[in-house]
UniProtKB/TrEMBL annotation:
Protein species of origin: Sphingomonas aerophila
Protein name, UniProt field: DUF418 domain-containing protein
Top-level lineage group: Bacteria
Transmembrane stretches, start-end: 18-37, 107-126, 132-148, 153-173, 253-271, 283-303, 323-340, 352-373, 385-408
DUF418 domain ranges (all copies): 268-426
Keywords noted in UniProt: Membrane, Transmembrane, Transmembrane helix
Lineage: Bacteria, Pseudomonadati, Pseudomonadota, Alphaproteobacteria, Sphingomonadales
Stored InterPro entries: Bact_Transport_Assoc, DUF418
Matches recorded under Pfam families: DUF418
Length: 446
């Protein structure tokens, strides 16, 4: 399938849109909710700690396994790659018009506005898991690399991503040695022998780990209490979560991860991979290859996560290779499906979601954090396990997909996109279909 098989459209601000990229974006933005809803409707601390706290009945276990193996991290991976593609589309068009300075100013201003929207999402709409501000920063970081050849973009992106492999591998070895030393220390203590320095260090590490686990459990209990209390407690806790993320330096890793896949996405767009320019046979082979690698890693890591006891974990080392493989598998599968008329018809509803992705993303937050789970809404926080949370995400996404398809038939842009593009363009853009508009001097890609 070629990149023109689905056609292109232009936004009211002149931005070109490749509709098959919109389909990928639509699938990705709906997939984001499956990653977020457990943090919205249950403990965020439990999601990254004792995930069984959220619910661990038979249905919950099935839901968690499917989410962990098939979906975890892949929706944001697709969005990160599409951000990289958007950078190429925007800057190549402007550079071709010999407006390099205009491209620089427009691109940075576009992401500055997106960053501001992210802050509103965090502090006004109360979602500490916002990705907009992080992606805006990452997009600015990689901008100077936009003109590199695809081979170099892939090399830099993979090098950044796979640094976790080395660090995680060292952690695996260190943990194994620590466990062996701790077991030896227990034998020595039982025999009344003095401990070696290595054994003393292992005992200390075990005590620290036990303290961290206890503190994690305390954090989960505190979060449950705060988010099940008054409206004021809910708001303060959401802000507290954001400050905790910043205080622990997690933001740096989020930006690093996003930047790495943006570079890979830019390369894949230049090679024609993202927009479906290669043959159906190529996408079929690529899908199978990516999934074989991705599923093998993800199943092993999920099984490791549900294990009990203290033992070395490969999660930190292999999570990112597995995530990239599964993300690519999803992208290849979509383009493979789009190579046939049946597949294109099945995926067609996602086009509208991709065209309204920013508004859909914000709507997910409004529904979850302002209607379903807060104390001033239905107050359903903590009442759903993994299975019910995933079913709720399905229901919300179906409603939003229907709304998106209804909207694009009547309006040129969704509300949040309209506000963003109008601010970037420096003028009020037409909103309804049928309204005339003038082609701007510079364009942007959504």
């Amino acid at each position: 399938m070629t990149d023109t098989a689905l056609g292109t459209v232009a936004e009211p601000d002149g931005a070109p849109r490749l509709l098959n990229l919109d389909i990928l974006r639509g699938i990705a933005i709906l997939g984001i909710l499956f990653m977020n809803i457990n943090d919205m409707g249950a403990s965020m601390n439990a999601s990254f700690g004792d995930f069984r706290h959220i619910g661990w009945g038979a249905a919950d276990q099935v839901a968690w396994w499917v989410r962990e193996v098939v979906a975890s991290g892949t929706a944001r991976g697709m969005l990160e790659m599409l951000f990289g593609a958007g950078m190429v589309i925007l800057t190549e068009r402007l550079v071709d018009d010999e407006r390099r300075w205009a491209a620089l100013k427009r691109y940075y201003w576009r992401n500055a506005v997106l960053f501001a929207f992210g802050l509103i999402h965090i502090f006004i709409l109360l979602w500490p898991g916002d990705i907009l501000h992080s992606y805006a920063i990452a997009a600015l970081v990689i901008f100077p690399m936009r003109n590199l050849r695809p081979r170099l973009l892939v090399a830099f992106g993979l090098a950044m991503s796979l640094l976790q492999l080395a660090g995680g591998g060292m952690g695996y070895v260190d943990t194994g040695q620590s466990i062996a030393a701790y077991q030896a220390a227990q034998v020595a203590q039982a025999a009344g022998r003095l401990l070696t320095d290595e054994q003393k260090a292992a005992v200390k590490l075990r005590a620290e780990r036990t303290a961290r686990l206890a503190n994690s459990a305390k954090q989960v209990a505190t979060e449950d209490a705060q988010r099940s209390g008054t409206a004021g407690q809910w708001v303060r806790w959401q802000w507290h979560q954001e400050m905790a993320i910043q205080g622990k330096g997690i933001e740096v890793f989020i930006i690093w991860e996003a930047a790495s896949l943006m570079l890979i996405g830019a390369a894949l767009f230049k090679l024609g991979v993202l927009q479906g320019s290669l043959s159906a046979r190529w996408y079929a082979a690529a899908t199978v290859t990516a999934y074989l690698f991705g599923f093998a890693i993800r199943i092993a890591l999920a099984a490791e996560s549900v294990g009990t006891g203290v033992f070395p974990h490969l999660t930190q080392a292999l999570y990112e290779p597995g995530r990239i493989a599964m993300t690519l598998g999803h992208i290849f599968l979509v383009n493979w499906m789009l190579a046939s008329g049946t597949g294109a018809r099945v995926l067609a509803p996602f086009r509208a979601v991709g065209q309204t992705a920013l508004s859909v993303y914000i709507a997910q937050t409004v529904i979850a954090l302002w209607v379903l789970y807060p104390p001033w809404g239905l107050a359903l926080y903590g009442r759903s396990g993994w299975a019910m949370l995933m079913l709720t995400a399905v229901a919300i996404n179906i409603a939003l997909a229907v709304a998106a398809n209804w909207w694009v038939k009547r309006y040129r842009m969704a509300p949040v996109e309209w506000a963003w593009r109008s601010l970037v363009a420096g003028r009020r853009l037409p909103f309804r279909r049928g309204a005339a508009f003038e082609a701007p001097e510079a364009v942007a890609i959504g």
